[in-house]
Structures are given as structure tokens and as C-alpha cells.
Amino acid sequence: MNARFIPALGAAAVAATLFCAPTALAESGDPVPPNCTGADFAGVSAGVAAAMSSYLFTHPDVNAFITGLEADADDQSTMKLVDYYATHPLVKAETDAIRQPIADFDRRCGYGKNSQL
Fold this sequence. Notes:
The structure is a single chain. By secondary structure, the chain is an all-alpha fold. The chain has one domain: F1FO ATP Synthase, CATH 1.20.20.20. Helix content is 79%, strand content 0%. The chain has helices at residues 5-27, 38-58, 60-72, 77-87, 89-109, 111-114. Helix 2 (38-58) packs across helix 3. The radius of gyration is 16 Å and the shape is elongated.
């Protein structure tokens, strides 16, 4: 697969979350919590994407590894990433911190409990 696969998959996941999660909340009868709209999620996601892009550009070794995963895109990609993080705990901590706003948003807004995403 080409290097466009992973970004396209990420865009599809964001789109699915934007449409499915607010719908799931609305269908459950629960009001959408403040700051939990699709627009809010898009803003948080954009910030995370920008921060991750900056991180990868300033860490060429990590960028090369991730790019290699995207180029391979095989069934072992997830395990390769888990193994990489196990041997590079600082990279894992830094990338987890970059992605934390999305996890916080999901937890605060309850998207995880209503969605398979």
C-alpha cells in the first residue's frame, strides 16, 4: 500500500467520529455535553494533527519509522509499533502526550461508550 493509506484511514476515522458519535449521543436521548460537538472534535483533532506533524518533522528517526509502517501497512504494523514503543519509551510518552487531548475529549464527551470507534 502507498504512504497515503494511513492518513486516509485517519481522515476516515475522524469523519466517522464526527458523524457517528454526535448521532449516537443524540439517539440515546442524552443532550450533547458542552464543548462536545463535531466542530469541537474537529478543532481538537486539528491541534493534535498539527502537533504530531511538528513532532515527526523534528524527530526524523521517528518519522522514518512511522513512514516505513505506512509503506508496509501489513498485519504486523501494530505489533511493530508496540515493539518500537517498548524500546523507545520516551517516544511513546511524547506521542501519548500529543494525542492526550483526543483521549480527554472522548472521555469528557462520552464518545467511547456510544461508538465502536
